[in-house]
Design goal:
Chain lengths: 95, 238
């Protein structure tokens, strides 16, 4: 599902569920991983083909996984800015 | 330790029985495969010491059936025999006559009864089965296991859905999905125990080309054993 914010800001694709096998992934300026339960390594090539893609909302577990994989992601948050609770948790090892 | 000894040469069988008994083991001895099978059902051995070539069969066949740690002795072993023995989890492989002290040293590798956690042993080259050594007997009746085989990516994903009831949580589902995608074709055996989950992957895998998968599995699983063709993965619930 791809959303275009009313204010004309960046498009957001909200992925969800257990993405353990290859599927066609929605593209947008920002990928919201809030609802993603698990993400398989098959997706890494997709991310590496889109360096510095903005992603947001990943659970601490998923964020640690993606960081360990050294994927070229730009961690961002959808409107609001600052350090999100999930980012804080990932940085300080909560959860 | 309860040891089942299978040796058709009377003098060797007698000497090994005395030697192992003198070292504190409880020994039952058989001269052929049929007698050994009968003894095993009553005796529940914790380990097997066996000749490779028996009048009525091969010691490796019994080892595969019993699914206990084993030591092989042979005067006629080939390299292929040694490889098969290794894949079945053989503790050591001796050329006869094998000194009793060497056999005992190999048997020291058998995990003690106090070992906590499941012990996974992959058995056979086809129709993989996993067994858990609990205390002094093989608790096979506690196992829930399934083996799936696939020959392309679409089949691999289909097999994943067939394993759903053996994959209790996200972590195990993620590990299984990664294992099913490590090769275009292969066999995956999944075993669900009371307090854990284990998988044996039989597939030709070039792990250097699957580095992301290997790292993810290592991060998720409680224990991994990488072997030339496949992997054994152990994971606890939760």
């Amino acid at each position: 599902m791809v959303d275009t914010p009313v204010a004309g800001g960046p498009t957001v694709a909200r992925w969800s569920g257990e993405l353990l096998f290859p599927i066609e992934l929605e593209e947008a300026a920002i990928i919201d991983l809030t609802a993603v339960v698990a993400l398989g390594t098959w997706s890494y090539a997709w991310f590496r083909a889109r360096p510095h893609l903005a992603v947001s909302g990943a659970s601490p577990t998923l964020r640690r996984q993606l960081m360990r994989a050294k994927l070229p992601l730009a961690w961002a948050d959808i409107p609001g800015g600052g350090v999100s609770p999930s980012e804080r948790a990932a940085l300080f090892g909560d959860g | 330790m309860r040891i089942l000894l299978m040796e058709d040469e009377d003098a060797i069988r007698s000497a090994l029985t005395r030697g192992l008994t003198a070292r504190g083991h409880e020994v039952r001895a058989a001269a052929c495969l049929a007698d050994a099978r009968a003894l095993a059902t009553q005796f529940a051995p914790e380990a097997l010491v066996s000749d490779l070539k028996l009048p009525d069969g091969n010691g490796l066949d019994l080892a595969a059936e019993l699914k206990v740690p084993f030591v092989l002795m042979t005067g006629y072993g080939t390299f292929d025999d040694a490889v098969r023995a290794m894949r079945l989890g053989c503790l050591d492989f001796f050329t006869k006559p094998a000194p009793i002290k060497d056999i005992c040293r190999a048997l020291e590798k058998v995990p003690s009864r106090s070992t906590s956690g499941p012990q996974v042993m992959a058995v056979g080259a086809n129709g993989m089965r996993l067994a858990r050594v609990r205390g002094s007997s093989v608790a096979e009746d506690e196992l829930r296991h399934r083996t799936v085989t696939w020959s392309d990516a679409a089949q691999a994903q289909q097999r994943f859905t067939e394993l759903a009831d053996l994959l209790p949580n996200v972590t195990t589902r993620q590990i299984a999905a990664e294992l099913l995608q490590t090769a275009n074709s292969g066999t995956l055996a999944v075993n669900l125990l009371g307090d854990g989950w284990s998988a044996w992957l039989q597939a030709t895998v070039a792990w250097h080309t699957h580095g992301d998968r290997q790292h993810l599995i290592e991060n998720l699983a409680r224990a991994c054993t990488w072997i030339p063709n496949g992997a054994v993965v152990e994971c606890a619930h939760g």
